[in-house]
Design goal:
The structure is a single chain. This protein has helices at residues 7-29, 35-41, 46-74, 76-95, 100-123, 125-128, 131-162, 167-170, 172-186, 200-223, 228-250, 264-294, 299-304, 307-327, 329-347, 356-382, 390-423, 431-437, 441-450, 454-489. The protein is mainly alpha-helical and 505 residues long. The N and C termini lie close together (11 Å).
Length: 505
Amino acid sequence: MGFRSNEKRKWWVLGALSFGLLAVGLDMTILNVALPTLASDLSASTSELQWIVDAYNLVLAAALLPAGMLGDRFGRKKFLLAALVLFGAASVACAYSGSPEMLIVMRMFLGFGAAFLIPLSMSVLPVLFEGAERTKALMVWATANMLGIPLGPIIGGWLLKHYDWGAVFLINLPFITVALFAVSALMPESRSQSRPRLDMVGIIASSAGLVLTTYGVIRAGEHGWSDTSSIAYLGAGVLALALFVLWQRRIAHSLIDLSLFRSARFTWGTILATAVSFAIFGLLFAMPQYFQAVLGADTLGTGLRLLPLIGGLIVGAKAAQGLIPKSGAKAIAAAGFAVLAVALAAGAMTGSGSGYGFAALWTTAAGLGLGLALPTAMDAALGELSAERSGVGSALIMAMRQVGGSFGVALLGAALNANYRGHLNEAGVPETIAGRAGHSITAGVSVARQTASDTLLVTVKDAFVHGMDVMLWICGGIAALGFLLALVFLPSGGAAADSSKDLGL
């Protein structure tokens, strides 16, 4: 009797994995509200603060594809348990780091743990569920994966008001502990029945390509797209990834199964999920700055103002679960992108005096579109994965989303900053003060208040809102492109019959 016959057990496993994913999502954004405190308590420089954030993303990008392959080959459960232990231990080490250097290293271990948790938690879905149940499980997984991101500033803001900065890492422990015990007790081991040789060349090439590309994008976001070093890193990353693809086509036992891209559902489901990540990470980059610098919210208030986004996400994901069997993935994904595009276009009409009510309205709609589009696109891609290769297939989906999110933050952040600086009215402002104000909206508001210049404060806020509007128009354009791609390329029918897949149990 297969594991799928134990209905309650597999849903408890999904719940446990969702707890672990919440910790990963929280860790992606909760640190942002703690950076000023870290700068003070650890005497961290701006460069060290950037590395505290970026070290996590770089290791995560490097390890995603090898993580999926190792889970398929040696057992998904054992690697999930090891990743949960590593993530928990690294969280404790981060909380008690006594220097920026130690915190950077521990954040690398956090990223390594997350690189196994994200794709392997996703890879068990084709093993445990099929058909409509798999769609429902994917909605739960995707919601848990996204919920932690906007919840991070809320929980982080509250923790920093009442506890030491280390609490933003220790909050991971309850989630990890629940997941650890539940996965250990309830989840069966699963692995691919075939055990091909390790593709070391593929591992090195893919890891190098993803790290170089991600670092090039991060550096371009900091130094501008005219920076030659940034372009060099990006070029090297793209070259490494191109060589990786050529290598995968030459060998019999490849790290990734390139034949997956013959499936329109997998190809376009993955591309559409990446497009959503690109657009939504831009929104999450800009809105906290808008709430704090323009509307004057504190860190906790900023997080609370993101609750409409979460509400819309939950409603959208729940609606998609019921609508996909009736209307098909094409219609629901396209509807999600359409709602997201309209919401972002509405957000692009924000003015300096718009207020929070308007922001709450359009971010709720954006969350609704996100909830409809993202799980639907990922379900389309996931439905093409057999249990044999679910680990590396899931890792491939997440690797593309990770790169898409990194590009989103860097490119959209660059567009926002360029338009902010270009729209900043510096007439009558001393050059040194204007230079400081042009660095960022936070610096602009700070220097305006230090100099008691209401005029500068108004122009700084106006300039940022202008830059944010331009950025949201770009995000809306990406969502509109996603709508067209979903209509034209995403098949309406179901995935390949699940009953024909080898479960690998």
